[in-house]
Write a structure and sequence with these properties.
By secondary structure, the chain is of the alpha+beta class. The chain contains 4 helices and 12 strands. The strands form 2 sheets. Strands 3-4-2-1-12-11 form a 6-stranded mixed sheet. A 6-stranded mixed sheet has the order 5-6-7-8-10-9, with no helix packed on it. Helix 1 crosses helix 2. The radius of gyration is 18 Å and the shape is globular. 48% of the residues are buried. The N terminus is likely disordered.
Length: 322
């Protein structure tokens, strides 16, 4: 079945596999499903509206969804955060991960949040419902116990689409965590405003001090001052988070010595070979974990499959601190 799936994708996209399941980039800290810590996470900007399918057919849609589900299963993912997701696309993923089709395999609960009532590119997923937004998938049927959607502030002079923070209280390995997902605007002034607001909202939403998993496309570099409110280490940092790929010494920049344990850095999740809008490689996608709850963080950005998304899929792992 796996062989026929690969053949189908090759025929549809003429580029082989949709996702490079189970194989991260060849770096010193390569994290495999066999070696990763037990708590597993994915963050992925899927470019649902702007990245066209090769054909608007059920076969093409099913192949895309099957590829993503295969990566979710290969990584044995506990929480999956998706950005730039069309509603029709979300429904297909939701159904593919539901108990109806997952006999003998882990099922997933899900929360959806719309940032736009309509996006023209979402026609390819469902011409009758073109909503566009974010989603969280949590391992275990009924594992999401609550959900909230908050619209983020904008600088009035900057034309932009609405941006949201989607949060859910979800089960993770027998505990309840606050799982949040966002997609920050790329205009400088609005980026600064929205990152600060996300940090504030996430902290205010955990009055009992529960663990937090915060993921998303932040459209900002790790070392930028905007990110000070998230990281708990580095220059002028004031946040409560560690990031899954912060201990990859191969990615340490000039500001971090090789003997350091961690650095505000990580493998690129945006690259010119992946997106026509990107002029240089950069890390702009993140998986943040509250520092006091998680230890031994690990992360990898998978190779990009051009034409299917303009971002690299980011996967992370960790263990409980206490």
């Amino acid at each position: 079945m796996r062989a026929s799936f690969r053949a189908l994708l090759a025929a549809l996209f003429s580029i082989g596999l949709l996702l490079t399941a189970g194989t991260g980039p060849a770096t010193a800290d390569e994290v495999t499903p066999e070696t990763a810590k037990p708590l597993r996470f994915i963050s992925y900007n899927v470019c649902g509206a702007k990245c066209p399918l090769p054909a608007e057919t059920n076969t093409a849609r099913s192949a895309w969804v099957s590829g993503l589900v295969e990566e979710i299963d290969t990584w044995d993912s506990d929480l999956i955060m998706l950005q730039e997701l069309c509603y029709g696309q979300w429904k297909l993923i939701r159904d593919a991960l539901s108990p109806q089709w997952r006999v003998g395999t882990d099922n997933y609960d899900t929360a959806w949040g719309a940032s736009l009532a309509t996006a023209s590119g979402c026609d390819q997923w469902d011409p009758d419902d073109r909503r566009f937004g974010l989603a969280i998938f949590s391992k275990g049927e009924g594992s999401i116990v609550s959900r909230s959607v908050t619209f983020l502030p904008e600088v009035a002079t900057v034309p932009t689409e609405d941006r949201i923070l989607l949060c859910a209280r979800a089960g993770l390995d027998g505990r309840v965590v606050r799982a949040c997902n966002t997609h920050i605007d790329f205009h400088d002034a609005t980026t600064t405003l929205q990152v600060k607001e996300v940090a504030k909202l996430v902290e205010e939403g955990r009055p009992d001090g529960e663990p937090v998993v915060l993921a998303g496309d932040f459209n900002q570099l790790p070392e930028h001052k905007d990110m000070n409110v998230l990281y708990n280490h580095g220059t002028d940092s004031a946040g409560r988070f560690q990031e899954v790929d912060e201990n990859d010494k191969a990615e340490f920049g000039a500001g971090c010595a090789q003997e350091a344990d961690r650095c505000r850095s990580g493998e690129e999740t945006a690259s010119p070979g992946c997106s026509a809008h990107t002029t240089e490689t950069s890390k702009i996608d993140y998986l943040f974990l509250s520092y006091e709850w998680f230890k031994t963080v690990q992360g990898d950005a998978l190779p990009c499959t051009k034409g299917l998304s303009d971002h690299h899929l980011l996967r992370g792992a960790a263990a409980w601190e206490k």
